[in-house]
Amino acid sequence: MKVMIVEDEGLIALELERIAQDAGHQTVGPVSTVEQALAYAPKSDVALVDLSLADGVSGAQLARRLIDRYGIDVIFVTGSPENVGNGMEGALDIIPKPFTDDRIASALSRAQALRRDFEGSNAVL
Q1: Which of 41, 54, 87, 116 is the Cys-Cys partner for 63 at CB 3.0 to 4.6 Å?
Q2: What is the pTM of this model?
């Protein structure tokens, strides 16, 4: 599965990238702005999205666009989960910072299982 990392803090982005790769996923990014995320969206299956991005735009607004326009599964990884608001609708999970490797890997595993089930149910016989 292709996992886009949307995080403007470099060390956290690298840590998320390592966790996703250790769990057997390919990573896209990391990216730190809405513009970058939308440019990489067509190459992604799931996105780990922080609420605060480098361009100041809310990650919740970005998540809404990723879900609606690109069918990307969104998992929020944020220090302020109470601020997700309307972005939560359609998102798979909200993981508060600080996070553990297992918590991120588990959320990605669930996303992969849901994607596999969805694609299997839409298979043409």
Answers
A1: 87
A2: 0.92
